[in-house]
Amino acid sequence: MRRAVVRNLTLWAVGGVLVSVGAAAPPSPTRSAERATTPTGAERAAATTEKVPVAVGHGGAVASVDPDASAAGIEVLRKGGNAVDAAVATAAALGVTEPYSAGVGGGGYFVHYDARTHQVSTIDGRETAPRTADSGLFLENGKPIPFAEAVTSGLGVGTPGTPATWQSALDAWGSKRLGTLLKPAEHLARDGFTVDATFRSQTESNEKRFRDFPASAKLFLPGGKLPVVGSTFKNPDLARTYEELGRKGVGALYHGQLAKDFVRTVNKPPVDPASGRVARPGDLSLRDLASYGVKRQKPTKTRYRGLDVYSMAPSSSGGTSVGEALNILERTDLSKASKTKYLHRFIEASRIAFADRGRWVGDPAFEDVPAKELLSQRFADSRECLIKDDAVLKSPLAPGDPRRPTACGTRGKAAPTTYEGENTTHLTTADKWGNVVAYTLTIESTGGSGITVPGRGFLLNNELTDFSFAPASPAVHDPNLPGPGKRPRSSIAPTIVLKHGKPVVALGSPGGATIITTVLQTLTGFVDRGLPLVDAIAAPRASQRNAAQTELEPGLWDSRTKASLESIGHSFKRNPEIGAATGVQRLPGGKWLAAAEKERRGGGSAMVVHPTD
User: Fold this and answer.
1) Residues catalogued as catalytic
2) What is the pLDDT of residue 416?
3) Is the pLDDT of residue 353 over 90?
4) How far does the signal peptide extend, from start to end residue (predicted)?
5) Cβ–Cβ under 8 Å, residues 345 and 387
6) Is the pLDDT of residue 9 over 60?
7) Most exposed residue of 177, 179, 256, 332, measured as fewest CB within 10 angstroms of its CB?
């Protein structure tokens, strides 16, 4: 279980009812000169909390997978920070307690709602390939190298985008200095957090890889052994890295000694010679890091049941795929549908959306991505007519042509969906002024590349393995092949839903390609099926990604609905856990509801600044 027990937090006090800071307007984006205050012993002793999946109250809200991380964000809100400030503090803390899912060595996508302007904006902080990369990046002798070998290598490491995302968000919408917001995570890394069964299990699943890299073994296998549940895990190297970033700014990762350490580790992975492991070198340069930039871009927008649904535009396929599926489902009254019909329609809409994303979505700097057309209701209607209530579509399904849609038409040949790693983390924040953030960040696989930057306390990503190693079908154009400076396609879909320009709900999830189906199912459960947000998140999930079989969690695998769907023609395989969502919901009277998982990853951590009954 994921930190399901009471934990001793090393952050500032957050237990019980927190004091709400009164103000009439959001703080100015101008950076204040405040200095962080180190918590006293009494504050640390009081800083204990249970991990709970739902919280309601005033003053703002934070939902993440981890109570230490949620507590960091809540403390920022309590001290007058806004939702962006809280998101950065929470993300930095997740880099400590969830180092196998996220960290400064990775990237992500950031979606922001501005209560002052009622505008939704996004930051694409996706990692990029080296300038020397080409479509054959993962080919040897004309054939793709084994996926696992690409993961544990320098070859799969992209230029990180997370630190640049933090600074870009703070420059645009924040109210506090980065150094201040990194302090909770810095303290947490230095003082340590309590190891739970999930952290130990994730370490154990990476043990063989970690032992082959001395820096990883030293950090994650203290004394040469797996960390013991209940023990305190410390990362002083990461604490120093955060302190340096706070003092020098994120440019330290892109220009300074830290950049040199990063590049050296990528290009000459520090593997133990006695291990026998062949860790392919990367070809990342200091120029690659120095030239990296996030992309500020417009979100995708889909109208659904009178609501405006905003998410990430390409390079992520999250916004276009969720949006297309919602448009397909718009014609069906899911609120009155039986459970079997609801899931059948959900599965088929997902299948179609994945068929279309595989053909059309890649990095728009390299590919002609018809995002607007993919999100048109006309195109959705041309695809929706493929769905029959008494039959199941066959995968791989051929894509449609969003530029020239024809009723029930397809274009070209079908290609299967390529594999994506399933580990990431998502956080959602809101403040007392009504600003909202949905932010998903990642280092790709659980444990990323398995390679720790020596003396720096964080793992390298393996995000470039999200590229297609080779076309899924030689006869079908693949928009997701590697290229110089190219961003690999993602499925990340942080989502904010508005009604009349004001927030209704915001959510997102980890899970590789299952992110799209998780967000889609949670949204339709909340909007169409009338489930409370925490129950929409907890509902057993299905995931169809243009594959022969649909994945089902145990709650559906063992249900009568499964047999009903099989009688139509569906085929299933079991997946023990799909995604790990978090969200916030705006309630009347200025209240916020924070929601997280009840059980997945051991349950999430939902907190509000000033709880109410």
Assistant:
1) 424
2) 66
3) yes
4) 1-23
5) yes
6) no
7) 256
At 458, which CATH number? Answer: 3.60.20.40
**Residue 306 is labelled as binding a ligand:** no
Neighbour-count burial for 486-497, b at 16+ CB within 10 Å, e otherwise? bbbbbbbbbbbb
Q: What is the pLDDT of residues 287-328, one digit of tens each?
A: 999 999 999 999 999 999 999 999 999 999 999 999 999 999
DSSP letter (8 states) at residue 578 = -
For residue 447, pLDDT over 80 is answered with yes
Q: Give me the amino acid identity at 98.
A: E
Task: Note whether residue 270 is domain-resident.
Answer: yes
> Which residues have C-beta within 8 Å of that of residue 514, sequence separation ≥ 6?
422, 491, 541, 543, 545, 551, 578, 579
Q: 492 in a domain, yes or no?
A: yes
Phi and psi angles of residue 300, each rounded to the nearest 5 degrees, phi first: -75, 155
The predicted structure's pLDDT at residue 164: 98
Check if the beta carbon of residue 7 is closer than 8 Å to that of residue 15: no
512 is in an annotated binding site: yes
Q: Is residue 68 predicted with pLDDT exceeding 50?
A: yes
| Residue 466 marked as a ligand binder | yes
What does the alpha-carbon distance between residue 340 and residue 330 come to, in Å, rounded to a whole number? 17
The answer to the question of residue 25 being in a domain is: no
Q: Which residues form the domain of 245?
A: 54-133+141-298+417-611
Beta bridge partners of 596: 582
End-to-end Cα, the chain, rounded Å: 27
How many domains does the chain contain in total? 1
What is the per-residue pLDDT for 419?
64
What is the model's pTM? 0.92
Place of tokens 């990194």: 182
- How much is the pLDDT for 475? 81
Judge whether 81 is annotated as a binding position.
no
Higher pLDDT pick, 517 / 44: 517
Question: Is residue 7 assigned to a domain?
Answer: no
- Give one word for 260, left, alpha or beta, with left for phi > 0 and alpha for psi -120 to 50: alpha
